TrEMBL record:
Record-given protein name: Glycosyltransferase RgtA/B/C/D-like domain-containing protein
Domain of life: Bacteria
Keyword vocabulary terms for this entry: Membrane, Transmembrane, Transmembrane helix
Transmembrane stretches, start-end: 5-22, 84-104, 111-128, 134-159, 171-197, 203-218, 230-249, 269-290, 317-335, 355-372, 379-396
Organism: Emticicia agri
This protein's record includes keyword Membrane: yes
Length: 603
């Protein structure tokens, strides 16, 4: 009984800790794609008059994706709560992670092991590395859920012979495809499962469903202008594609231990990804070699043949791992090919790490094919320790990111509240009168090309429309009380600084570079830290000055969680034109301690 209680604790504790962390840190503020993908969609939905127009809008393209699930979630949230509440949408997205323990527990039954073997999987799933899932609603509902739908569908196809399970799996694959572009790979990855486990009639139906789904997705599909040309990436950046692919899957290891040296960071991630993909490729090619090469010598003294024999011992278990490997592998390949020209750092974006960490689960489960049953218990114990550390370090790694993001979003909504508009400029020459015009009346909102509002001329006018409609019509963006506290502290409770900080400001053609020494940010603060504020008679604009957390080894030596130096760039186009008083200072105990003040002109 004690063992069972311990197992339940190890399963429930990381799940509870994860959702407490999410609930405490997520808040009702949109970001980036949320403006047009969620609120822009809802505003357009209300302006469509016929069922056909609404259906077309649901399936319409956003960038290279069709995001019907995001849009259905938006409609559900609005109709249930009367508003677009981003915190609710983010909680909806991460709640689907609760499906995966049931899926993988059913898989573990195929090798006749108990509930304890699920513990390492729980530690891998419920970690905080995909931190953007709690700050970016579309990310939570898009690249996060698409993987979950696919893995769930694989289990239904393989482990349930009933007709409803077949149709439910196809529905999930369709939903995955129309949630994020890589969801189409769930259909392809499931082919071995359909061939093995489903009836002849279902195989024919599956082919029809796949053809129809792909036709519907690519019907009237347009290449988004903001994305690099794939053929250019293939011909000019093949080396980066390869590096991106392996770094994509190895990135959780790097992010967890916080290596800031770029060369070391990239090398570690690439090596880890190469080892994991290499091992799983060995399993795949061993199976294919002995299965389809008639001249292969079947000798039990050969390690590879013994591996092949073990793979056959658990056919459904290994077929599921194959489908999962193909799904995440193809997703990683698509990411690498599409993003190569944007540099290797793209592989470390936290919003894609739900895909990456699934490969860690596949790696853990695949190891049972080479270990004797007598060693499984010892392997489980080691796996629990390793994955527990993986889980705990994810909180350490993300804590600093959480605090910096909340400072950023806090000032973002504060700037919008103070100035009646949101400053977001994509180009150096984006100082257009329309970009600064406050919105005073409801307007019909156009959908920009491919329903994508980012990085196109005139974007500010569109975003301003959405923000105005949101404030008036969607009952959204009532700033949290803490934003008012921040406002009062920054602009009203100003005092002279008595600390040892020093500030150097370099005035460039289009930026301010702010360098600070001897800074100190207490661990675990919510909004305390360093800011640059710009004020005149018309405008008040604030920017947080980020400071990165130390590496773990430095933290042990200094007992300081944050570095003592800040070096940031503030872009002038993010500040309205005119003369401003610029103050650099520290927010602490609801007071803004001014370190340096000077007058500046923004042309």
């Amino acid at each position: 009984m004690k063992n069972k209680a311990g197992i339940y604790f190890l399963i429930l504790a990381p799940i509870i800790a994860f959702y407490v962390f999410v609930e405490r840190n997520a808040f009702n503020i949109g970001w980036n794609d949320d403006w047009h993908g969620i609120e822009g969609f809802l505003a357009s939905w209300m302006q469509q008059t016929t069922f056909g127009e609404k259906l077309t809008l649901l399936f319409s393209q956003m960038c290279e994706h069709r995001i019907i699930y995001v849009r259905l979630s938006t409609l559900l949230c609005y109709n249930l709560f009367g508003e677009v509440n981003y915190k609710i949408l983010m909680l909806m997205g991460v709640s689907y992670l609760l499906i995966l323990p049931f899926v993988f527990y059913r898989l573990l039954k195929e090798i006749n092991v108990g509930l304890a073997y699920l513990v390492p999987i729980i530690f891998i799933i419920f970690n905080t590395q995909p931190i953007e899932n709690i700050f970016w609603a579309i990310t939570s509902l898009q690249p996060n859920t698409v993987i979950i739908f696919g893995l769930w569908g694989f289990g239904l196809l393989l482990f349930n012979k009933k007709a409803w399970a077949f149709y439910m799996a196809n529905f999930l694959f369709f939903l995955a495809m129309f949630t994020n572009g890589n969801g189409m790979f769930s259909f392809l990855a499931a082919i071995p499962l359909v061939l093995y486990a489903r009836t002849k009639s279902e195989k024919i139906q599956y082919l029809i469903i796949v053809v129809f789904s792909f036709w519907l997705y690519f019907h009237d599909f347009q290449k988004p202008g903001i994305r690099p040309d794939v053929m250019v990436n293939i011909t000019q950046f093949p080396h980066i594609i390869l590096g991106d692919f392996f770094a994509f899957f190895g990135s959780p290891i790097d992010s967890t231990v916080q290596i800031y040296d770029i060369t070391v960071k990239h090398v570690v991630a690439i090596v880890v990804g190469l080892v994991m993909i290499g091992w799983l490729a060995v399993l795949l090619f061993t199976f294919l070699y002995y299965r389809f090469w008639s001249k292969a010598k079947k000798n039990m003294h050969n390690w590879f043949y013994r591996l092949y024999d073990k793979l056959l011992k658990y056919p459904k278990f290994n077929l599921y791992l194959l489908a999962a490997f193909l799904f995440v592998g193809l997703s990683g390949a698509a990411f690498s090919v599409s993003r190569a020209s944007q540099g290797l750092e793209q592989a470390f974006a936290s919003r894609y790490k739900t895909v990456s960490i699934i490969l860690f689960i596949v790696l853990y489960l695949s190891s049972f094919n080479i270990l004797p049953v007598s060693q499984w218990k010892k392997y489980l114990q080691i796996s629990i320790i390793v994955t527990l550390l993986f889980n705990l370090f994810s909180y350490y790694e993300s804590w600093d990111d959480v605090e910096n993001r909340r400072r950023f979003f806090g000032t973002t909504i504060l700037n919008w509240k103070n100035n009646g508009r949101y400053y977001y400029y994509a180009f150096p020459d984006s100082r257009n009168p329309d970009d600064h015009a406050p919105i005073t009346q409801y307007q019909r909102l156009p959908i920009p090309p491919l329903n994508y509002a980012g990085f196109v001329p005139g974007i500010m006018k569109y975003v301003n429309d959405i923000l105005w409609v949101s404030r008036v019509h969607f009952k959204n963006y009532t700033p949290p009380a803490e934003i008012d506290v921040m406002h009062k502290a920054l602009y009203e409770n100003q005092v002279a600084n008595t600390g040892n900080e020093t500030v150097k400001i370099t005035d460039g053609s289009n930026t301010f570079r702010i360098e600070m020494e001897n800074v100190f940010v207490p661990f675990g603060t919510r909004y305390d830290g360093y800011y640059a504020i710009f004020t005149n008679e018309k405008n008040r604009v604030a920017f947080p000055l980020e400071t990165q957390a130390n590496k773990f080894t430095t933290f042990l030596g200094t007992q300081r969680f944050y570095n003592n130096r800040i070096d940031v760039i503030v872009a002038k186009p993010e500040i309205p034109s005119g003369q401003f008083s610029m103050k650099i200072g520290k927010l602490e105990n609801n007071q803004f301690k001014v370190i340096k003040e000077q007058t500046i002109n923004i042309q």
